[in-house]
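Record 1 of the preview.
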Amino acid sequence: MSAFPVSPEKENQLAQRMVALGVCEADIEESFVRSGGHGGQNVNKTSTCVMLMHRPTGLQVKCQETRQQALNRFIARRLLLDKIEQKQKGFVAARRAEIERIRRQKRKRSRRAKNKMLADKARQSDKKSARRPVTMD
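->
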């Protein structure tokens, strides 16, 4: 009997990915807590939320996507492997660079840049108004 309620292929893929990243099941600390949100009485009575902690890296993942504990265990492992892979491959630096780029875009323009932008808009407006047909008033 399989450990997760998914197809054997998905379970094998998960196992292969764990081996490729060097993560063994003994390194993962698993705990169950009560979920919150949608699900009615079921989430109040059963501990379907899964928390995983990878001891060597200190990364933590919490999953309460479904009402089934076993499926949440599978999804949480996938999320944990995603985080570990990001940390190992250096995607963290790329993510920080993306956040910094967005921050720069949202930053307030300098007075000189704003005046230049407004002047360009006024020039464009003059061009467009010159294209209008001449009317006899």
